[in-house]
């Protein structure tokens, strides 16, 4: 059997003049499970590590286990509701990345991304993550329309680990969410 954690679209969480990325209330991380025999009960054991934050962040870790019944239609609507919050690969008509470039600002390199969203309400936002699990730079909006973003890539020594790397860009708006891969320009 195989299990993959699916992540709902995040939000910006301003706190004390700083921002983090996460979820402001209850969140469900759906698991996509491939079982050898989906009609039979299966025991699932998962080790988890996460942070719970309010005024400070507390790391939490533990092992969760549950016996899952075989395939069950009863929970289909609930599962579908949580899956609807998970970004899917972008398709025509979804939000899209229009341009990715690196510019120098003094001794730092900045990633500048232009995006388009299928809404004009200014709700567009963009988040980066490393599909391989490494750290990714935090974006910030450059305008109120939600179409331009920048991320600090740091000084040249920091840039080296990101040079030419693929990052997942998650685009979120009031009309939904999607993701696409971008390749950071080689410098």
Per-chain topology:
Blueprint: E1 2-5, E2 11-15, E3 18-22, E4 31-34, E5 42-53, E6 57-68, H1 76-83, E7 88-89, E8 96-105, E9 108-116, E10 125-129, E11 139-141, E12 148-154, H2 156-159, E13 166-173, E14 176-183
Parallel strand pairs: 7-14
Antiparallel strand pairs: 1-4, 2-3, 5-6, 8-9, 9-12, 10-13, 11-12, 13-14
Quick overview:
The chain has two helices and 14 strands; from the N terminus they run E-E-E-E-E-E-H-E-E-E-E-E-E-H-E-E.
Structure write-up:
This protein has 187 residues and is mostly beta strands. It has two domains: 2-83, no CATH class; 88-183, Immunoglobulin-like. The protein is 6% helix and 50% strand. The chain contains two helices and 14 strands; from the N terminus they run E-E-E-E-E-E-H-E-E-E-E-E-E-H-E-E. The strands form five sheets. It has a four-stranded mixed sheet with strand order 7-14-13-10, with no helix packed on it. A hairpin with a 3-residue loop joins strand 5 and strand 6 (57-68). The mean pLDDT is 88.
Percent helix: under 10%
Number of strands: 14
Major sheet: arrangement of strands? 7-14-13-10
| Tally of alpha and pi helices | 2
Output the keywords.
about 190 residues; mainly beta; Immunoglobulin-like; four-stranded mixed β-sheet; four-stranded antiparallel β-sheet; 2 helices
């Amino acid at each position: 059997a195989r299990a993959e954690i699916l992540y709902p679209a995040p939000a910006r969480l301003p706190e004390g003049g700083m921002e983090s990325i996460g979820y402001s209330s209850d969140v469900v991380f759906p698991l996509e499970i491939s079982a050898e025999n989906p009609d039979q009960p299966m025991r699932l054991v998962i080790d988890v590590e996460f942070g719970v934050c309010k005024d400070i962040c507390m790391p939490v870790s533990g092992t969760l286990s549950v016996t899952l019944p075989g395939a069950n239609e009863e929970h289909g609507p609930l599962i579908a509701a949580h899956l609807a919050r998970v970004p899917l690969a972008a398709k025509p008509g979804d939000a899209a990345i229009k341009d990715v470039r690196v510019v120098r600002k003094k001794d730092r390199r900045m990633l500048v991304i232009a995006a388009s969203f299928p809404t004009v309400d200014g709700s567009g936002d963009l988040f980066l993550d490393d599909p391989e699990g490494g750290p990714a730079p935090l974006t910030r909006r450059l305008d109120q329309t939600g179409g331009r973003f920048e991320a600090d890539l740091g000084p040249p020594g920091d840039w080296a680990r990101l040079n030419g790397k693929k990052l997942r860009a998650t685009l979120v708006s009031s009309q939904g969410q999607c993701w696409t891969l971008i390749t950071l320009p080689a410098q």
